[in-house]
């Protein structure tokens, strides 16, 4: 079982992963454990204070080191008692390394994550220096708290746990797993508002379908995320597929068909 302990002053927010969809079932199936720790429960003052004004002035408040460290330590101790040799402490923050498929794969191997979800302007840097192993960002923008980023990370990792997806192929056929964007998906009805499903997908010819999907993945990556595509590293077959795609789609990289 993989362990997630989340440090948050809004523990109820984690219900989003605990009570819905794939993550809910994986939790019920015991594929992972999820526990929240509220730093307020580790305060000693009557006001259960977890934030204070920033030294040096400026807007907003900063999360205090002591309640955070006490919560982190309690979470890490719980994981150690549960057999996790070395719980990894992760702070979700815009100053962290970008969360990518590579980082997700690296964290696959971690038996336990203690995820710190900050609020306000951020957390006291001294608790980061003392207790945080990795800072991770979900993107170059600012959220009002670390809870949503923490749930993004948990969701990414849980769906890769063996047994969490109905069909394990889903995870390995995901976008990015092959370093490419996903191919387009279609389902019934065959015709919808005058738009048909590509013929090949109705052919039952699995080799042709696989070829068409590979071409779409290559072409859409070239169009939408040329930064992900190293054409010089493509196989001869993939280069041929991309050429075909380009011939069929006269757009330049980064331009989306029919959209400005
Ligand atoms: C964030 C991000 C993020 C910063 C201050 C929470 C906020 C507030 N976390 N990726 N982007 N966090 O914006 O992970 O406390």
What does this molecule look like?
By secondary structure, the chain is α/β, with parallel strands linked by helices. It has two domains: 2-158, Alpha/beta knot; 175-248, tRNA(m1g37)methyltransferase, domain 2 (Trp Operon Repressor, Chain A, Orthogonal Bundle), CATH 1.10.1270.20. The chain contains nine helices and nine strands. It has a five-stranded parallel beta sheet, sandwiched between helices. Helix 4 links the parallel strand 5 (88-98) and strand 6 (112-117). Helix 3 (65-81) packs parallel to helix 5 (125-131) and helix 8 crosses helix 9. The longest helix has 19 residues, at 206-224.
Question: In summary, what is this structure?
Answer:
With 260 residues, the protein is an alpha/beta fold. It has helices at 15-18, 21-28, 65-81, 101-108, 125-131, 147-158, 169-172, 206-224, 236-248, and strands at 2-7, 32-37, 51-52, 62-63, 88-98, 112-117, 134-137, 191-192, 195-196. It has 9 helices and 9 strands.
